[in-house]
Amino acid sequence: MADAALRLTALAEDLLGTPLPVRIRAWDGSESGPPGAPVLVLRHRRALRRLLWKPGELGLARAWVAGELDIEGDLYEALDLLAGLLWERGADAKDAVHPIRNPVLRTAARKLFAIAGPFPPPPPPPEELRHRRGMVHTKHRDKKAISHHYDVGNDFYSLVLGPSMVYSCAYWAAESPDSTLEEAQRDKLDLVCRKLGLKEGMRLLDVGCGWGSMAIHAAREYGVQVTGVTLSVEQAAYARKRIAEEGLTDRIEIRVQDYRDVRDGPYDAISSIGMAEHVGSEQYREYADDLYTLLKPGGRLLNHQIARRPERDESAYHIDDFIDSYVFPDGELAPVGRTLSTLEEAGFEARDVEVLREHYALTLREWVANLEKRWPEAVRMTSPGRARVWRLYMAASALSFERNRIGVNQILAIKPEEGGASGVQLRPRRWN
User: Which CATH number fits domain 139-414: 3.30.70.3040, 3.90.1200.10, 3.40.50.150, 3.90.190.10?
Assistant: First the structure.
């Protein structure tokens, strides 16, 4: 009798001590679990072997990327239910999926072997970045990490991000809550320009310039001279093409260059939008010092950065295995308070902090919708595994922002002039 789903459900509920909130459909056609709930589809026994050999998040991610595990029904609902079951129940729940820490799981593992078959561990899907060598956040290793994430095809990014080609959270202004993604991204770029106080003739350094959207907006709308730097060869080529089509080659220079190698300051303003997450906690002070040196006195920095919630014990902080292996290799998130402190230690004065957490959740849902709408094209442009990585990563990230597990903040900081003048006008805060 086909009963793999029933056996797996019973095993999981015994282990976790709670009913499963999702249904399971196994490779043998059997189903078990609450009717009407999202369905966790196990297409192959190999998905179980991945969990046996790599318990927890990475094993699940490998099965998902390989197409051995899928979800039918509302993806967001399923991820939310599974997150509450596995990732939000504290240390006890994490120990529950680790056989060394939980002897009960050793017994469960023997039962799983009986279902999955005692075969060697399957090789990770090819989309996973492996065999990283050398110290973290050297220039060479950072370049390879950036290439893994960004050099997957400009056409693919265009499909996901839409015409704006902005890969950071959009800004839905209160005056226009029903804006399209493209309008909201334009409003975000303009918000950055206004915070930086850009005026014609100024020099702007755009650190991590991506596909050139910020550089183009600042040059076209505010008449500034822009230098954009990125480590992605594909991004730079795309940005230069866009700039030429806009007739802005005399105002914008795009370099494939590490920000640590920029030496032609001082600049009047610096924008760093969605780039500092790649810097790493050990190098963050160097990042702040370098940007401080590159600004003229009175110059402004706009740092737009994802932040995590602080841990009670910061030594227990663990980088997400799925994100590190498949999405942002060597990326690190820091609490916003630590970022502010580091900028101040470098000499900056923080003048404004704006939280855009809900804006990023909306942005990610728009990107997921773009991807799902044109799924066959996305698969052709990259690979089935890569498209699955992005769908899972963006949907799970949207939920993380909505549930306040992570946030995103714009910090406006200045390099004070001699005597302490900020050059920032007094203005009232507007609150609804």
Answer: 3.40.50.150
